[in-house]
Design goal:
7-stranded parallel sheet, globular, binds NADPH dihydro-nicotinamide-adenine-dinucleotide phosphate
Length: 254
């Protein structure tokens, strides 16, 4: 028995058209899963599907705005029409708006919470009956160092990512009886479009991250391939409600 085999499984990765999501998609696909790249930018999604195809991964894209419940519903319907199953859900779509807490508008707050947290709940609710019917499933939620730490400009983001950890624990306890494992991954500082913007805006960020990270570097999207495979396969069947850091030691450095 190959504990890490995903042949015949279907994995949906929200925000799978770039960054960490695409890194996870590459891992899941190379372990044998068919991958659904689910995001808004269709050009980026098409490029991601092509890239996965070049790795001999069966991949399709579905347009979704995860802040819109009917769009999420349509996405899941399309997955079922195309593949007839949904085994792995990666709630990776995310965004950030950096402000001091007193400066957030309520719309900015809601954009971050809806994109990062409410979307995960929505997609989990939609996936749940399909996973129950299939006899089980795997859900991977993406947290952050801001699930653990605070920073002055991250009130909305930290609230959403702290919420992801607690949502993960609640779903894990509720759905263990259905053989659905729900876990969260907390990436450290990873080189993606999201943080490239932050590096441009925050002077000295790049150097501070390298200095504080015991591994001495930023993470890459491909650093997330292995953990995605572990949490999506039989290798993790008794792992649920966990939060796993992928941060080169950032969070354990005194
Ligand atoms: P990217 O900006 O590269 O990726 C974000 C992805 O989310 C894109 O694919 C984007 O696709 C998608 N997305 C954003 N909003 C929506 C929406 N409303 N509906 C559907 N898809 C959406 O950033 P990362 O790869 O860095 O981020 C991925 C996840 O990892 C996020 O949850 C982020 O918070 C988290 N994270 C990142 C860290 C880092 O250092 N980079 C550290 C810790 C956590 P599109 O625009 O096409 O919709």
């Amino acid at each position: 028995m190959n504990l890490f085999d995903l042949k015949g499984r279907v994995a949906v990765v929200t925000g799978g058209n770039g960054g960490i999501g695409l890194g996870m998609a590459r891992g899941l696909g190379q372990a044998g899963a068919a991958v659904v790249v689910a995001a808004r930018n269709e050009e980026k999604s098409a490029a991601a599907v092509e890239e996965l195809g070049a790795l001999s991964v069966e991949a399709v894209s579905v347009r979704v705005d995860v802040t819109d419940s009917s769009s999420c519903r349509t996405m899941v319907e399309e997955v079922m029409q195309r593949f007839g199953r949904l085994d792995v859900l990666v709630n990776n779509a995310g965004t950030n708006i950096r402000r001091q807490p007193q400066d957030y508008t309520i719309d900015e707050w809601r954009t971050v919470i809806d994109t990062n947290l409410t979307s995960a709940m929505l997609c989990c609710q939609l996936a749940y009956p399909l996973m129950v019917e299939a006899g089980g499933g795997k859900i991977i939620n993406i947290g952050s160092m801001m699930s653990i730490f605070g920073a002055s400009f991250t009130a909305a983001y930290a609230a959403s990512k702290g919420g992801i950890v607690q949502l993960t624990k609640a779903l894990a306890t509720a759905w263990a009886k259905d053989n659905i494992q729900v876990n969260a991954v907390l990436p450290g500082w990873i080189d993606t479009e999201l943080t490239r913007r932050a590096r441009g805006e925050i002077e000295g960020l790049h150097e501070r991250v390298v200095a504080r990270t015991p591994a001495g570097r930023w993470g890459t999207p491909d650093d997330h391939a292995g953990i995605a495979v572990f949490l999506a396969t039989a290798a993790s069947d008794f792992v649920t409600g966990s939060t796993i850091t992928i941060d080169g030691g950032y969070s354990v450095q005194a």
